[in-house]
Design brief:
Rossmann fold, mainly alpha, two-stranded antiparallel ribbon
Length: 116
């Protein structure tokens, strides 16, 4: 485990997810999206970086993996909705949805969601 960038919390995160599912009485499903991430996010990031640009892979990951690939997988399992834990607000004005900054600017994640 490489802790140069902080400890990996995957084991603890999985335990938390299992406990939450047990508390809610819903099944827990695990799926590895590493291949999709490599193909849809990381290779694009490398190409952009080679071209002298500095893309943010988190923005592309949200659009391609969390709100596309993951949502498709969840729907295959029969889910109607997903919860990602992102902190932002939205509203519908005149039939158009708008992404708004979170009320707490220290927690706001609207930038990471702007490409949806």
């Amino acid at each position: 485990e490489d802790e140069r960038f902080g400890p990996c919390r995957a084991v603890e995160d999985r335990k938390d997810a299992l406990a939450t599912c047990a508390l809610l009485g819903i099944p827990f499903h695990a799926r590895n999206f590493a291949r999709e991430y490599w193909d849809q996010v990381f290779e694009h990031f490398l190409a952009e970086y080679r071209a002298g640009r500095t893309p943010n892979p988190d923005v592309l990951c949200n659009r391609e993996i969390k709100f596309k690939t993951f949502l498709e997988h969840a729907r295959e399992l029969g889910a109607e909705r997903i919860a990602t834990g992102h902190y932002a607000r939205n509203r519908c004005l005149d039939g158009r949805w708008q992404l708004l900054r979170g009320l707490d600017e220290n927690k706001d994640q609207s930038y990471f969601l702007h490409a949806l």
